[in-house]
Please model this.
Amino acid sequence: MYRIVTGKVLSPSGNPRKGSVKFEFTGSFDNTAQYPTFTETIKLNFDGTFSVPLWVNELGESESSYNCVLPGGDSFSFTLPIGSAAVDLGVLRERSVTPFTPNLLDIHNNDPNAHLNIRNGDSVGNILTAATITGGRVIAMNADGRGIYADSLIASTANSVIGISTNSAATGTVVNYKTFGRIVEPTWNWTVNSPLFVGTDGQILQSPLVSGYILKLGVALSPVEILLNIGKPILR
Model:
């Protein structure tokens, strides 16, 4: 079974790149099988957008992992989540296992209703919500490519966390989020130097819950400021 991955390639001048580019994907691999490296030469659309099918597995019922080498030579590893809807390479990049410095890519969701927009090298993005989201909460992307609360008791959100919301948004509207860096919220009251973790309903906790997965989000720099640096989830 395949899942479509979409994106957009820009030239250094910021204009849509035309022609063909090469993406190298290693995978997919899971706990039981590994498949050989393949290089995909993708013909770009007139506006620089592209779509490429990536193998999930025979039934699409398990996550698959990939390493991606971009046209500019940068690389990152990501998990392709369960689902059948198209997923944006920018989102996969933001929750990658191995971060990278982007070069020629300005990747964003091609679905005008999704409103995901992660600019080249930025640590911010926005996404259409599947439910009401308030500011200062940890958000994840569901199988339809929409924003929901991350929840450490819901295993399906473990590998789909994309950042912390910076505004409130009703269902079906756009929520902004930050993926890395400093965030200030005057209503917070953290213990300085305390590590921060995902809790339930998108809450940020100073200690992980006794059950569910553990995902470290970063550290408190002051009572009202954190340094966001999302780690890799530990499932239990």
About this structure: The longest strand covers residues 20-29.
